[in-house]
Recover the amino acids of this structure.
């Protein structure tokens, strides 16, 4: 078999392994999935009228649903990849990585299996949260088929970038608890973006950080694709962030993985 065939075969084996782990231990995935659903219901039904009125219009829960759902979807991706950091950390600390190093398998397949499995889980989680959003009234009737396809592509790209960062975080963490804590910014950053309120409504000193951190342009791009709002330069900024984070996470993870065990 060629090197490419071996790499694909070993990567698919590692992907099946990670998906089986997710199926056998669903509690972590379930907890990470419930968080964005609870946030969605909380902000729509508890804060929806107040938040929409505070954004400069009349109290309109339906309008706020449309505004908040893109941010919740991005938050779902950030939460899902926390599980990846924990899973990678478990592999590193429980000795299975050392065992893989002694086997005749493609070295990169271990990381590729984690990343591919995480992206698939992120897509599934986004689909489930999106279904809940539709059930409570979210509609994107003006989005064309091409815009829907671009929206899914955008979320997959964001999931890929954040997953590589989460893999790196998991590999340098001494245990699962530390991995979860290290990946916590991936959950916190959406809270201080334009997910729940416009950046212009934030204090002036805080706006630059909220505007240019990775989640805000991604949320604004997704919002534009689904709702027809202005995207501007956010699309290109999002792609640049995703490419930079993917490259950083890839080389970081590869460097740690190839490091000789102590």
């Amino acid at each position: 078999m060629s090197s490419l065939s071996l790499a694909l075969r070993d990567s698919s084996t590692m992907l099946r392994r990670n998906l089986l782990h997710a199926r056998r231990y669903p509690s972590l995935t379930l907890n990470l999935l419930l968080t964005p659903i609870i946030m969605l219901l909380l902000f729509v039904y508890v804060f929806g009228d107040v938040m929409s009125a505070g954004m400069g219009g009349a109290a309109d829960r339906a309008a706020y649903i449309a505004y908040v759902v893109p941010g919740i979807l991005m938050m779902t991706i950030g939460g899902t990849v926390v599980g990846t950091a924990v899973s990678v950390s478990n592999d590193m600390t429980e000795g299975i990585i050392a065992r893989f190093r002694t086997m005749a398998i493609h070295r990169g397949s271990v990381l590729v299996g984690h990343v591919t499995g995480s992206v698939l889980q992120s897509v599934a989680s986004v689909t489930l949260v999106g279904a809940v959003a539709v059930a409570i009234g979210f509609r994107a009737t003006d989005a064309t088929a091409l815009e829907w396809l671009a929206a899914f592509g955008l979320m997959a790209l964001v999931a890929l970038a954040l997953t590589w960062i989460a893999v790196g975080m998991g590999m340098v963490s001494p245990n699962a608890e530390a991995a979860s804590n290290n990946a916590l910014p991936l959950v916190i950053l959406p809270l201080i973006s334009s997910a729940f309120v416009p950046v212009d409504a934030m204090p002036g000193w805080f706006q630059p950080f909220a505007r240019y951190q990775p989640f805000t342009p991604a949320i604004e791009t997704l919002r534009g694709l689904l709702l027809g709002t202005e995207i501007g330069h956010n699309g290109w900024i999002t792609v640049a962030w995703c490419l930079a984070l993917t490259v950083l996470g890839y080389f970081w993870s590869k460097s740690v993985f190839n490091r000789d065990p102590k």
Summary: The chain has twelve helices and no strands. Residues 61-94 form the longest helix (34 residues). The radius of gyration is 19 Å.
